[in-house]
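Below is a complete specimen:
___
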Amino acid sequence: MKKLLFALPALLLLASCGGASNDNAKTTSVQAVAEQKGEVLAIDTIGTMIDWKATHKGGLAPRWGKIGVSSGTVSVNNDSLSGGEFIINMGSLFVDPASVTEKDKKASDLAGHLTSADFFDVAKYSTAKFVITKVEPFTNAQSSSLIADPNYLISGNLTLKDSTLNITFPSKVEITASGLTASARFVIDRSAWGINYKTEGSPENWIISKDIEIGLILKAKRN
């Protein structure tokens, strides 16, 4: 297969090597946005990063890379995460050269194809967005987790291109005197946002795994 897809999150994510179905973020229709109560912290866009991983069918020829966050805020109320949102810079999509090992292929060519109209059409949709709609304590009975010791279950509206869906995933959030750090890793189905290569069901699209694994490290500093 010639081409491969990221995908968000990322927002944004983000991504996948084809995780087990119970690692998929729960996906539903758009939900009401959570009010940002308490202290609002600006996201550290240098320290915040989304990583992604995608493969062909059966986990073959994995590709991975990163994508940046251009702006955003999170809110902390009574030492708990209460809301937030961030903007993903789709033009920053990066393919790690270490993931492209074939002699006739280049990471830069793949990045160019992913940002083209065949996939994310960055010229038309320069950003993606994630907005928190619900924050609740994580319990083992609710979901499996690809990260260790999650303490929150976060839901949010993820916009990719012109489509918005709500996703729910476990996250580990640490709040200190200096700020907030959150980490998450989950799998989404790219086709749910209508992201297909050529046409849905075509041989070119079929050979690409629909699963995208997305990882997020988010940092926000207190003033």
Q: What stands out?
A: Residues 1-21 have pLDDT under 50 and may be disordered. Residues 21-221 form a domain with the Lipocalin fold (CATH 2.40.128.110). Strands lie at 26-28, 39-42, 49-54, 63-77, 80-95, 127-137, 152-160, 163-175, 179-189, 211-221.
